[in-house]
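Repro case for the chain-ordering regression, as requested:
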Amino acid sequence: MREKKWTFATTAIVAGLIALSAIATMVIRIPIPATTGYFNIGDVFVVLAGLWLGPLAGLLVGGLGPTIADAIGFPVFIPATMVTKGLEGFLVGLIASQAKGASLHLRTIAAFVGGFTVVAGYFIFEAYIYPALGKFMPAFAITDIGAAIVEAFPNTVQGVIGAVGGLALWKALSGYDPGKK
Amino acid sequence: MNIHRFHSFENQVAFFTARTGVHLPRMTFGKGAFFKDLGKWSSTYSSQAQDVECVHILPDPVQGLSFPRAVDVLSSALSLSCGIVDTDEIYALLEYFGLPGSKATQPVISLSGGELLLLNFAKAKAMLTAVGGVVACSPIHWLNENSYIYWEKLVDAYHARQRFVDVALLTGEPFIDEERAKPEAAIEPVPAVEWQLVLNHPIVEFAEIRFPSYHPASRIEYGLADDRSSIEFQSPMLMTGDNGVGKSIFGKILSGILKPASGDMAISAPNGTGHARLIFQDAIDQLFGKSIDGHLAWVFRFDREKGKAAQQIYTEIDTKMRDYFKDRPKEAEALGPQAEHCTLLQAKISLIAERLATRPTVLVLDEPGWGLSGPIARKLVETVCRVAGGLQVAIVLISHHARWWTGMVRSRCHLEKQGHDHVIIRKIPEPCMKFDDTSGISE
Amino acid sequence: MNTHTDNKRTVPWWLKLVLLLMLGMPGFSGWPNGWIIQKLQATDLFTPEIAYIVVWVAYACSVWLVVLICAGKQKLLNYLGAAFVLALTVAMLGAILRGLFPLLAAGLSREATSFKLIRIFINIIIFLPFSVLFINSFSAKQLIDRVAHFDGRYRTVGLHLALAFRVFQHTGEVVFNLFQIWAEEYPEKIVPRNEGSRKFRWYAPGNLLVWGWGCIHAWIFACIIHTFEPIPAMVAEVERIDRANNSHKGTKNTKEQKGLL
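-- result from build under test --
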């Protein structure tokens, strides 16, 4: 479907993935006391969106789904999540769209690049951007570079789970070969 | 009206897909097959219209309603024939198909099976001038006899405008396929199980979110006729009532899924006093996204004894059904291969076997005939009643098709509305049966 | 025919949006709760932690009151039930994690870590009911009606948005329906119905892990499958609307012309 134009089917699937990524982010939340952030499995659907439907879908699912979840309980993380997860979905989709046929190699690289984006993105926000914003808006003064280093570990685990889970779901969905009836 | 008859749900769905181009992913094969189907749909999906636009009434009628409330569904349907929709027209359509105006703003998901079908009829009527016809799967299955007239009205309207009406039926469905709906033969009496229902005016409430205006919650208060507080039944018991009266909701209260806001209800049966177990109208959903085998394995993961019991019950019912199919090879497709559990009938047998293995007080079968042909549904329920009788489990059938269960049920109750939100449960005498040598049972 | 007067009196979507955003303002910006907390602290009657809890719990009560008025007692209780279970799970997991991996607290004192978990708890019990109210306060069809009268690509964009909104709403319905199915199968919700004999302890650590992982796995896939199940039919219907609207201009026909009655 990636090569085709954006259709109502694409919209419906993207909307479903946004909702599912929001639910997955919300339901399994393991808080990281250092930053008030949390570990979750919403990345599975972000990676899946990028692999299945391409960069724009990845951007939308990553930018909206986990952000909605953050609005329920963790509103201060909305900017970091929107940018980081949106970029994660976009990069996965961009790299995966270069893959030929059902080839798994480039898609695996894409999924793990997405995982790395999560680690790097949150680190930058928590180590530099939030402390800087916190000087003007106290609500953002919740992290520093030490806390960001600590959270890099659970974020790495989260990134790996997202990449592996997203790849597994994509593989299940790509079971149909249009060439074979 | 073009009637296409099928012996199995799977073939009915295959016909619908071929006729309309709408893919319905398979649910009984587990997640692998589901994802494959979804991937196939998304890979081959094309936004091109079919040669002739038509209205779809799906086997699960809620799936054809793509908007949150009846007013939204009808407004979008009417917008096909005119740009500006008058709200009066929406309410006139609802009234035309026997739905009260209060249903207009109720979430579609909360409507009963029969109401969903009536709403589908209203939608089809609204789209009449914009489409070439209607393709309907089992369009009256969840309807009460009083409501068959609405299907006739819809068909007449389509015929008057020279539009086609294609109906995909499961053999022996009542009314449309009336001749085949007659019970085939007299059956031996099924074992009786005595049980008692005690009601202390349970009330269930349903609210609708309408920010910022206050919208009062709808409520149903159940009570027994003649101000009684308890009533005795003999299993198998048949529960009937108009569409939307609250039969399925009562089933959910019996099984403890819905907790009354006030009042309570209790069951006293040979197996104890606990809650009933329930097979939903759309039983496939109860597999919880798993395959038939996967579901059974998961449920009994920590209880091998009950798992074995469930397997034995499954085999017993399966064997009886296969015996039945020996003389009816065409119908055997409904059960599928013995080695592979994949059909709706197999899913229902496995869900029933799982519940019987837990020895509940009562097993409620909500529209057990959905997705099955008349004769197969009758054979299945008869077999289940026999197995349940041996386990002292009382059976409650919630169904509109009383004729299907003639000669099988031992007691019967009817739910009827009194006033705005009271539902009275009345025990009614089961008509005397006489056996006709040539055509089976007649009342 | 007077049953639909209520429907006609529905508040305009933009007013709903403004009112809901005003209600959610403290969550998005911290104002005015932060200001009130400062004032309370200035009285020297409250520590910063107690002032925070007092103000945010009072705000929680006002959000719940709005949900009660708009959705009724039963829905509020359902939402609060879900919110408290989620909040408790998060807080307990946080507390366990703090004990197992002290490093994750990054040198914060035990009290400071506990207070952070309390903040998370309060945020969840406020914003879960609020978010559900927010999502259910708008009609996808009204959005379609509004954009259906635009010309060209803007109308199509509107239909895409409306479809997305409906699918999103459907996913919420799926989750609640799955809860009903789960409740029938597992009346005690988190305990397996068929626990086996006393010799076989399902709650032994290994079995508990299997059970927990199996539940998560089942829920993830059930949510995915039930979310996507009706999408092909939904897409087909919205496409029909799109095609039909492309083929006619917005004129009001009489009932007789449309053959309605």
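Ordering looks correct now. Confidence is low (pLDDT under 50) at residues 1-8, 249-261 of chain C.
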